[in-house]
Amino acid sequence: MKRILLLPLLALLTALGVSAQSDPRQPLVFGVAFYNLENLFDTINNNGKYDLEFSPQGSRQWNSEKYWSKINNLAYCISKMVTKNTPMGPAIIGVSEIENKSVLDDLVRAKDIKQWRLQVVHHDSPDRRGVDVGLLYNPRLFKVLDVTNHTLVIPDNPNFRTRDQMCVTGILGGDTLSVIVNHWPSRLGGQERSSYLREAAGELSKHIADSLWAIRPNQGVIVMGDLNDDPQDKSCAVELGAKRDQDKVEPHGFFNPWWRVLDKGIGTLAYKGQWNLFDQIIVSGTLLKHNHGLLQYSSCKVNNFDFLFDTEGQRQGYPKRTFASGAWLNGYSDHFPTIIFLHKARK
């Protein structure tokens, strides 16, 4: 596991004089989103057999036309994540299933969102398939101070490789916030047989959060990502300790608002007629109203816009993905994006 370099961050925060002072120029509500971009690969084969299918010579015949269509589709979806209280869209957008930084650079320059001038945080992970997590942010709303990346080590499986967990710490609404972006191990081989991998990932996220709180006990922490598990599964509910009810969450615990969303039958991806909610944004107790922080959680939403649904065939009513059964659908992703809203408490 990579050492968590947080002492330089503390010195930087002190030097900058970061405090909970309110800034009248800052908005009062902030969106924090997550979106699995479903195999956002460029057209160049840089990773041998794992990357061949996403090249013009591969089985998907992944060429410039398809690539730029996907970029524009994703940008259009992100552009719709505006609300009356967040007219510039989300302040922070975590992403997964991206090949490299260049695809994110292309995405933030796409016509539908280029006016936001989003910035990119990216790190190359050891994942064998060559996919990473990343973070997009609006520099007018969020100021990045520090980035650390943490490798998931499985002692009984030393050859295991997956996505690193990216921890981005910055200033949002005048307060310090850390966002841990994840793409936990898949259910390959079956949910139960692979559960121990996601349980280890949940434990790692909790360790990162505890290390942050050891330096700044009152700061907010968000764990987001495609967790490949639902809120009630052990990785989320036990190892991370994300609870269903806000009033049961201690300051250094976690609240999972998506538990009740899934109870209503709303999910972010569907498999064999069943909805799952893998794309979660989980908030620390320090971001809950009863703990009186400057930034406070207010609501969550699955951004299941009408245009993201497949309207025909066996996948009717499911997320409209880029490919299905080998055919190019010119879709978006096999996951719906999610968003939470934080509001700035009045002091």
Automatic annotation (TrEMBL):
Domain Endonuclease/exonuclease/phosphatase as annotated: residue spans: 32-344
Keywords, sorted A to Z: Endonuclease, Exonuclease, Hydrolase, Nuclease, Signal
InterPro entries found in the cross-reference section: Endo/exonu/phosph_ase_sf, Endo/exonuclease/phosphatase
Protein origin, superkingdom: Bacteria
Gene3D superfamilies, per the entry: Endonuclease/exonuclease/phosphatase (3.60.10.10)
Residues spanning the signal sequence: 1-20
Gene Ontology terms for molecular function: endonuclease activity; exonuclease activity
Name by which UniProt lists this protein: Endonuclease/exonuclease/phosphatase family protein
Highest classification ranks of the organism: Bacteria, Pseudomonadati, Bacteroidota, Bacteroidia, Bacteroidales
